[in-house]
Amino acid sequence: MLDDLADALAHILPQILAATGAPGVGVALATPTEFRSLAAGYADLAALTPMTADSSGPAGSLSKPLLGIALMQLAEAGCIDVDAPINDFLPSGLRPPDPEPISAAMLASHQGGYRTDFIDATLTHPGPFADHFARRLAIGATPEYGGVSPLRGTPGTYAYSSLGMSLIGCAVEHLSGTRYDEYVDRHILRPLGMTDSALPAGNSAPGRWDELRAGANRAVGYMGFGPWCVPTPELHSATYPAAGLVTSPADYARLLQSLLRSAKGDGILSPTSLAQMLQPRISRSSPVTPDTWAGIALELGSPQRLGERYWWGHSAAYPWGSWWDARVYPHRDLIVVAMTNKWDMMQLHNPADRNAAGIVAGWAGRWAVEGIPPRLARAAQRSKLAAPQHTSIHQTTAQTPTREASAWMGALAAERVYGTLGVTDRWDEATTEAMARATRPADGSTPPGPDVAAFTTAVDQISALAPDPDSLRAHATRQGPAAALWALECGNTTPEFPIPVEFLAVPHP
User: Fold this and answer.
1) CB-based contacts of 353: which residues, under 8 Å, 6+ apart?
2) In this predicted model, what pLDDT tens digit does every residue of 10-40 receive, in sequence order?
3) Do 300 and 280 touch, CB atoms closer than 8 A?
4) pTM for the whole thing?
5) In whole angstroms, what is the distance from residue 59 CA to residue 50 CA?
6) By the 8 A CB rule, do 344 and 355 touch?
7) How far does CA 219 lie from the centroid of its chain?
């Protein structure tokens, strides 16, 4: 089954990239004992480096299952009760007392009473998460758009919070006496042979995370504007326990293999611990994976709706250049991990049925249950018998951006960092110019790119206005109908220049 599925996906990957406008996609397919890898397109458009399943990139929320595993390991050792008040297992004074106690399981299923956030992004290495949490608690607001939304919400209701879940990392440190990244490396990554995975250390010293981000297997993340891809500036996550992992599809598949084997007592957790992680805790209506449930640090498909295609795992993204989908289909003993290195900048979220990684993960599960479409199976077999070729994507003719379009690209790139994410630092002019000069069409062709001066000027303009959403909204209005139509041409669903992101520019759940 695995070989046929890999052949079918490998055959159609270039078409998936062409349809989604992504530079590349890397895929790992596995069972508890077998492994296959496939890929198409490019990890780096400027260097024309092919994407592979060993290409590494920032994996955002794929960090969260590691938190769940660490939590359950400590529970197995008798160090923590996942349903007891989390303050009992944190350094004294880190969190104020709760009117109604919050448990680790509530934090791990996004019910801890912290509002929806991204990654608490910075342009430099973050310090210890506990220090960041204390600062954020004192501020009392989320960082997006400078703090328009209160930090605290209603405990027991669902709100996706990397800040809240990262508190589990503080508990791991307090109970184990080691830094969170060291605990994960010693008790999860190294035992599973995950040599291409690392978390930030919470200090400025270069480490394995930095080596992977600068290594030869690095996948460049891109902001997508129609056919054009702008390299994303390097962003760090202050909520790194829940959002800072760097990994590859192949490496992460090793983690899911061990978790899947845990059901039979031969994995990184006991069967009882895995069952606790897979217990549905609260329903969630995610714009990426709708109609799902939250377990302990895992997303769960709907068994009633999906039947034999039921899955568990996690979707993930890292602004503004990576989307991931990691799924286990337990009824078929199938694991799928896929990464694509583009974020469609016309949409805040790139749903799983619209980004290359999510499409691969969904189709793999469907075909494992229902069978590979016969026409595709025949085409894949013919392709396999033919001479091997590099699987680049179909080339298209990308027109050189006008001066106005170059400015709009620069404005959106800067707004999503300085406004949407609320990053207070500013990258330098050399970084802005390098981003513009390295901009390429997703197909790897090399027509003249955006106007560097116009791109740079727009970045500077937004830098002066952000993070204030009213000022950014006024700037968008001044761009007029031409900018709105350009955005529509680039894939926006309405004729509007998408600044600011209205959901995050006001108080939100």
Assistant:
1) 359, 362
2) 999 999 999 999 999 999 999 999 999 999 9
3) yes
4) 0.96
5) 19
6) yes
7) 13
Phi-psi region of 365 (alpha: psi -120 to 50; beta: other; left: phi over 0): alpha
User: From CA 429, how far away is CA 435, in angstroms rounded?
Assistant: 10
Among the listed residues 233, 215, 188, the one whose alpha carbon sits nearest the alpha carbon of residue 56:
215
The two three-digit tokens of residue 185, written as one number? 């490396």
| Three-state helix/strand/coil letters over 454-475 | HHHHHHHHHHHHCCCHHHHHHH
Tokens representing 204 are 């400025």
**Both ends of the chain: CA-CA distance in Å?**
43
Tell me the per-residue pLDDT of 320-337, one tens digit each, with 9 for 90 and over: 999 999 999 999 999 999
Phi, psi of 150, rounded to the nearest 5 degrees: -60, 150
What is the rounded CA–CA span in Å between residue 140 and residue 146?
11
> How many Cβ atoms from other residues are within 10 Å of residue 143's Cβ?
25
CA–CA separation, 169 vs 450, rounded Å? 42
Collect all residues with Cβ–Cβ distance below 8 Å to 261 and sequence separation of at least 6: 32, 267
User: How far apart, in whole angstroms, are the C-alpha atoms of residue 326 and residue 253?
Assistant: 8
